[in-house]
Write the structure tokens for this entry.
Amino acid sequence: MAIRTVVWGENVHEQTNKIVAGIYPNGMHSCIADALNSVPGISATTATLQEDEHGLTAARLAETDVLIWWGHCAHGEVSDEVVERVAEAVWSGMGLIVLHSGHFSKIFKRLMGTPCNLTWREAGERERLWLTSRNHPIAAGLPDSFELENEEMYGEPFGIPEPLETVFISWFQGGEVFRSGVTYKRGAGNVFYFRPGHETYPTYHDANVQKVIQNAVKWAHNPAARIANPTDAPNVPVDVAPEKIVERGPKLHHAGEDGYK
Ligand code: ZN
């Protein structure tokens, strides 16, 4: 079965800025979804901030193998309830790919637990991405380095936890460097952050960028059945302990109680 992918777009700049609308007449999310649908084995649809529950109902997430997230000027308009729902879906095994300014999205900060801040400059600089993990599945078919002629600069220090793997680092014309492709495991879910994608440049039309996102969808897909209740913390009674034990010492909790969360 094809990997069911939802490309979530904030979809605000495309509606309010002529330059962005010119580059992405159907929205960045549609451009990314089209690139994914050109690959056998991936089936991509879109969802946007403006839809009911931002298009991310519990039922939709239950049928989503990989979620892609692009947000920028409206992070604060994303409902906390939906963010928590997405976090639980990741913990239960859904893959998540966060793009560009999504570093400040509620869902990325929730899953990272750090400020996710960085330095930045909007000056149309050349970005050169270098592969730092040869043979990594996210880098399959890519050259050792590739360039984007115009991009926004993101620079270190990047306020993320130490990644599981760093797949790309970027160099910018102005001299800064940045960990631009990093992986994490959160619960049963695979998470990938990929830096390029400033809205006023045609980054998501670039073949190498599309290749990275296509590869990342395949990498992030966890084919195992979803964990039903990923935040459960069951109390295991004495009589079902794997080894026979005799209860002893003072205790606070009653057998079988839920405990505190
Ligand atoms: Zn940007």
User: Anything to note?
Assistant: Strands lie at 3-9, 42-48, 66-70, 95-99, 119-131, 145-155, 165-172, 177-186, 189-194. The first strand starts at residue 3 and ends at 9. Helices lie at 13-16, 18-23, 28-37, 58-62, 80-91, 106-112, 207-220.
